[in-house]
Amino acid sequence: MPTNKLRANMSYREVIPKNLSPPEWIDVKINTGTQSTLQDLKTFESSGGYCYKNRGNAQNRNRFIYWRTQQDVLELVEISLDISLQRNHLRLRFTDSAVLNVFLKEDANTLNLLVVTVSSVHRYAFPLKTTGLAGLSEDQTSQSIFYDVSEKINDPSSFHVTDGLGNLPSVAVSYLSQDSQTAYFAVAYQEKLLMHVMNCATGQTISNEIKEPHLMPRFLSNLKGALTGRSEAPEAAISMAFSEIEGQFFLLVLYRNNELRLWSLDNVQTLASINCSSRSTHGGSGTQGPQSNQLRKINDQDFCLFLSHDMGAEFICVSIMPDVEDVRGLKLVVQHSLSAPQMDLADFDATSSHIWALWSNADGDYHVSAIYLGSNDAIKWVSAALEPPPDRYSLNLERGIDPRQAYCSYIFHPGRFDRNIIAKALYMFRRVNMQFDVKQLSMSMLKDQVCQAVEDEIQNELKDFVVSDDEYLEIATRLWDRFYSCCEQYHMKFAEPTGLAVLEDMDAVCLVRRQSFSLLRPCEVLEHLLLIGEHNEEVATYVAPLFRNNPATAKGFVDLMNVITLLDKLISEDIKMELDNQLYQRASPLEVISKLVTRITVGDDNGPMLPSNCMKQMHQKLQEIPNLKPAVDVLLDVLCMIDPDAPRNDYSGCTRFLQPTGALFGSEYGLSILAETVRQMATIRFSVCRNLLVLQFMVYGSDGMDSECMLTNINYLNSYYTLMWISETAIPANTPAGFEASIQRLSRAQLFNGYTRPYASHLRNHGHDQTTLLSLFLQSKGLFCALTVLIKNAGMQMETEQLSLRESLLQLVGFVNKILWPESPEYIFPEWLFGTCHHTIVQDYVRILSNWCKVNSHSRRFMLAVSLLDCGEAHKAVDLFQHTAEGILAEEFLFEHVLKNTPIYSDLKEIISSNKKISVENVKLAKVHYYLKVIQLFEQHSALDYIIQLAHLAMNVLRRDDPQLPMFQSIVFNNHLQLGHYEEAYHALVYNADISRRKDCLRQLVITLFQSKSLHLLMQFPYTGLQDEFESIVESRARSISIDQNEVYNFLYAFHTNKGNMRKAATVMFEQAMRLQVDSDAPNALEKRCSSLLIAINCLNLVDHRYRWIAKPTIGDEEVAPMDEEQDNPDGVPKGQEVVVLELDDIRRELVHAEALLELSHHRKGVASLDKITPEELSCLLVSTGLYTSALKLHRGHTFSVLPIFEGLATACVTATEEKDVDAWGWLQNNDLADLPHRNNAADMAWTLLQKLLVNHESKDSTLIKKGVVNRLLTLNSFVPQWLIESYKLANSRELLQLFVKHNRLLEAADLACEMICAMLGAGCEYFEFRQSVAVTNPQLSFPTNTIDLLLHGLKINMNEDIEYEMAYGKLEEEVQRYIEIVKRTTEDKMSLAILHNREELRQQALF
After folding, report:
1. Which position has the higher pLDDT, 234 or 374?
2. What are 65's strand-pairing partners?
3. Would you state the pLDDT for residue 296?
4. For residues 130 and 947, what is the distance between their CA atoms, to the nearest angstrom?
5. pLDDT tens digits, residue range 75-97?
6. CB-CB contact of 1231 with 1249 (8 Å)
7. Rounded to whole angstroms, how far apart are CA atoms 71 and 59?
8. pLDDT reported for residue 538
């Protein structure tokens, strides 16, 4: 730790909180009822601050209030670096009454605010929360003391109206007693000094005038002033301060004549006085110089005065001390007298050890400096390094860069310009009096407004002209530069300091600006040496304790820093920016520095960059350092951030998020200050490394490029550049698009833990769309990681102890730098960055470190691969993943994230923790599990090609008999399958070592190929050793799919046909036909069924006749046992499944039946419900529909009678003949008329059809069909066609005669009988079935005796009614008689002949 001397003389540096939320002011108007005095009084802006006392309460740690006044407005802002306060901005407006003095004091339970205006005095008490963090709720903890301010603040007891008797005061001071019971207000007018004492309990106020009795009357005194030309009394008070010593109250007053008096408030008498002018070393007339004299209270005994004289200014420290000569008296003793710089004092504050002053020069620039009061060997005035305003020359306006992009990225960089400043600049640029609520306007919306405004101005200038691209860019650059100037002006105005306040408990200084504030924090050693710029010889004695009290080493170190500082001033900002850009582009630092040294020494076309005398001066100073090498080593040790031999820190306790209840530097302001301090220190150290490398190159040249010292410096240069990049890189403050999807992918792959979510902080963005990478890291995780180490190392209770910024901030910054350090063994920041899913930033981070940082290189490569994969660049990611596999066990990040949830994790963890050697087998297993995790990532991105590649990489690691091999082979198969690489998928499954996986893969392949209609591939694969399984899979799929959308049966038929197995093909087709019959309701189901049966018949016809049969498939309910099975099998013995054998004829019958249904379906609805109908019933339906040929076709293979078919057709013919059926052609066309001669008449066509069918279907020796047809015709009382009669006569004339007689067709029967008798007698026997007549030599003929008797009887009965019957009767009777006579004669002849033959035979026998 630095010694007290070093701390006393160490400089300070300003740190500005940036990217803060817009303030929400609580506006309160206080009306005291007095008249307006603003126009009569000229008051200056004033400001100050108050730091809370800690008192063991963590709420008050790093908590302070700063205030500023302007006319009648008092603004108070409460700031906590640890807790995010709500409603912490209070604006008090004292109506028409200018504010003169503000005083803040804290007691046990309240914070008291005393305010003096020109016409009133006020006291307000704000309650403090003193119960500690544990006793308060989250909302109460984050409430500011101004949270409950309301209109009660106008309570009359809280203020008192003063009466100046027409005069206006110019100076005032206030004080609250130690017991907080009495408030004192001293108000100085031009000629008097009034004291107001307020009872805090009742608000009652007593006023008194503080004065001494004068021998000269007042009017003479005024006359003297008028005669001497002085308009102001020389004894007018210009500054005052209260003091309370041992319960007594005093007022110390500095008068215009530089006299300092100590008044006792008890007896209103002067106890002591001194003339400050007489003690001045600057001389003067004893009156005030060009600047205002001021008095500041250090404590109740010590005070500090600023005195301005004609020849200069000085600070005097005065103490109130007991007077040795007078026991009851006091005296004023001057302790220090210090000359002030030759600048104008704006404000100052003093402590017991330092004087802090805010100065301004003639150019309007402000400076802050301090001087240490504790020792005479101080380094006099030490300047604090204030932050410069934004530099427009930092804009990168190279040729070809869009001005809009360049200016927007610079103006809207997080924290560069406040949102209010940009809004006001926009009003000025537009030159319109239009405003909008800045609080409701996000930075992105404001950016759009700015871009639109500038674009409108560009278009206004170009509306009447056609310009080239270069001219357009020139105009755009000019207008954007104009807008930037507006931002710059407002920034300079609002950032102008108005005062300062020393926050002694925090070891910081609050610099109050017009619309913001900043803190002056202690510098570290390198910052001090680089920023102080002078008195380095004296500094060497103070920094010696840091280097083991070795003055020589300390002096060499300081001298080296002096040269580095000199070089830093000589190198231009353009050169520095160029070097930064080259490092960002991953240029070699040695090459960059080599070119820089060449430009410095040799120069370019314009000559050397630095004058030769500067180079000589630096070389001379370097030569004057006797121990340059040790000094460089010391500097490198100081620059080193991590100790490789130090034990690693445990960050397991830093997994929680920032809470509103606060943590050290956990508020919005604290995080901003912490982040800004990290940036400042990284920038300083980077410049030191850069300048040191330049000096090393100048001293050692290119020969020392390989020296360890220079390589170490190069490493530090790159590391600090990385820290600068982290602290300055902008990142969206809100979750990026696709964040949740990316996180879910990482979580599903078990590569991300939820506690590291980067957007879980309580801090609200308040419309800030962007922040810096460092700020976001600190918000979510970085701060607590640093606090974990701080608590562990410091061994203190941060909840109760007050830590100064030197103890807390600088140490925290050091721990944050160690966490961010690229070569840090803890992979905290990269892991967090990995979780942000901001892929551009992740890739940039890895790119910056890729060339030089070897630590955790595999982990960063893994991060880059995941990022590229998320960005859709899988082809790049897969190569990175492949190279990362080698470091899976070498780096903790990969080991913990990739292998943690794997079965080998615990074993490997034990091996690694015990420092045992990891076996080759374990390395292979680790790689296998690593590739599995990577494959899971690629699967979520559907990067199937690369999954195959990764699987092959994993398979190359495994042995052929490894049990993990089939899994990766299955992965290859699945991804080939998804990609449509079906042939590769088939080969992958064939080579799968696991039989069960092989079958599963085959099933997936079959299903996928069927879905993709790639049946030709299914057909051509050989299925070696898998054909039975393949057929089983396809058959199962065929049966599982609805028959209406089923192409699998057709494929199976084609497959079996292709293999030459026709019986299986026939079985498949028959099963399809059965399913079409049972399961399908599709309109074309019958047609498909017929086709299937036809194909089955065709297949069986191609088989040897001995094997033309198939086993009937069982489908649907046919597999279920019948209901009476138990009755048939009472013993419960299981029966074998009965196999039904189907031969070719059975299938044909099925086909005929199906075709009949199909034909019927064309003419009749509801055929689907007739699937169980018998063939005979179906034929009846066909006949009723007019499908006679179809009905006759159905008869083939069945045994039912065809008589109903012909009877129906005969009826149809009769109907057509009688023209009752107007649509005879309709049913005729539905029958087979192909072989019939065409007839113009439908009736003729119908009779012709009947004739053809009758001829084709009547058996040779049968007349059943003819009998049925004739019987139906006669029943219908219709004529019998001649062709039918002739055909019937040739077949069975006697039966025809009987039908005529039966149906009472007597005349036709008589004619037929006469013809028959004539034929029997030999006239026309060829027209009847008997081919011979009655003759002696011919066989006997049967004569239908009964039929003719019936006929004659019928004719005889009807002969009296009609002559035709009589004639027919006569003719038939005559023919019958003739037949009888001939038959009788013939019979006699036959008998005679028989006798003769008999005699002859007897004679012959007798002869022999």
Report:
1. 374
2. 50, 78
3. 93
4. 62
5. 999 999 988 898 899 999 998 88
6. yes
7. 33
8. 61
Summarize pLDDT for 453-504 with one digit per residue, the tens.
999 999 988 887 888 888 888 899 999 999 999 999 999 999 999 999 999 8
CA distance linking residue 360 with residue 343, whole number of Å: 6
How many whole angstroms separate alpha carbon 559 and alpha carbon 64?
39
Helix axes 589-601, 573-584, angle to 10 degrees: 160
The CB-side HSE value for 1055 (13 A sphere, CA atoms) comes to 25
- Asked if 80 and 669 count as a contact pair (C-beta separation under 8 A), the reply is yes
Q: Which residue has the tokens 């190069």?
A: 714
Pair 197, 172: CB distance under 8 Å? no
Q: Which residues lie closer than 8 Å to 873 by C-beta, 6 or more apart?
A: none
Which stretches within 463-535 are classed as H helix? 469-494, 525-532
**What is residue 337's three-state secondary structure?**
strand
Q: How far apart are CA 355 and CA 151, in angstroms?
A: 40
Fill in the DSSP letter of residue 468: -
Quote the CA–CA distance of 1247 and 1254 in Å, as a whole number.
Answer: 10
The type of residue at 670 is: G
Q: What is the DSSP string of 766-814?
A: TT--EEEHHHHHIIIIIHHHHHHHHHHHH---TTTS---TTTTHHHHHH
Measured CA to CA in angstroms, residue 858 lies from 827, 854, 872, 893, 919 at distances of 12, 9, 21, 9, 20
Query: Coil, strand, or helix at residue 1371?
Result: helix
What are the CA-CA distances from residue 162 to residues 633, 681, 1182 (Å)? 68, 52, 125
Q: How far is CA 532 from the centre of its chain?
A: 48
* Count of C-beta atoms within a 10 Å radius of residue 965: 20
Q: Is the pTM of this model over 0.85?
A: no
Cα–Cα distance for residue pair 481/490, rounded to 1 Å: 14
| Torsions phi, psi for 1113 (to 5 deg) | -65, 150
Q: Measure the CA–CA gap between 552 and 540, rounded to whole angstroms.
A: 9
Structural contact between residues 104 and 113, judged by C-beta atoms closer than 8 angstroms: yes
CA distances from 1100 to 1113, 1150, 1154, 1193 (A): 16, 14, 18, 21
CA distances from residue 547 to 526, 543, 557, 637, 1189 in whole angstroms, order as listed: 14, 7, 9, 11, 122
CB 1112 within 8 A of CB 1143: no
Task: Say whether pLDDT at 1124 is over 50.
Answer: no
Task: Please give the DSSP secondary-structure letter assigned to residue 887.
Answer: G
φ/ψ region of 1232 (left if φ > 0, alpha if ψ in -120 to 50, else beta) reads: beta
What distance in Å separates the CA atoms of residue 1270 and residue 1252, rounded to the nearest whole number? 15
Give the type of residue at 38: L
- Do residues 144 and 130 touch, judged by C-beta distance below 8 A? no
Token pair 């008296």 is found at: 329
The CA–CA distances, whole Å, from 80 to 134, 419, 515, 1092 equal: 18, 22, 18, 88
Q: DSSP label at 123?
A: E
At 1180-1206, the pLDDT tens digits run 888 888 888 888 888 877 888 888 888
With contact defined as beta carbons under 8 Å apart, do 1328 and 1289 qualify? yes
Question: What are the CB-based long-range contacts (under 8 Å, 24+) for 130-139?
Answer: 130/57, 132/57, 132/58, 132/59, 133/58, 133/59, 133/661, 133/662, 133/799, 136/661, 138/659, 138/660, 138/661
CA-wise closest residue to 933 among 900, 890, 889, 963: 900
Q: Would you state the structure tokens that stand for residue 766, as one six-digit string?
A: 């308040």
For the chain, the straight-line distance linking the first and the last C-alpha, in angstroms and rounded, comes to 174
**DSSP E strand stretches across 1008-1144:** 1109-1111, 1141-1143
Which residues partner with 116 through β-bridges? 101, 121
Residue 152 has pLDDT above 60, yes or no: yes
SS3 262: strand
The first and second tokens of residue 665, run together, are 């530097």
Q: Which residues pair with 48 in a beta bridge?
A: 67
Structure tokens at 1307: 């005349």
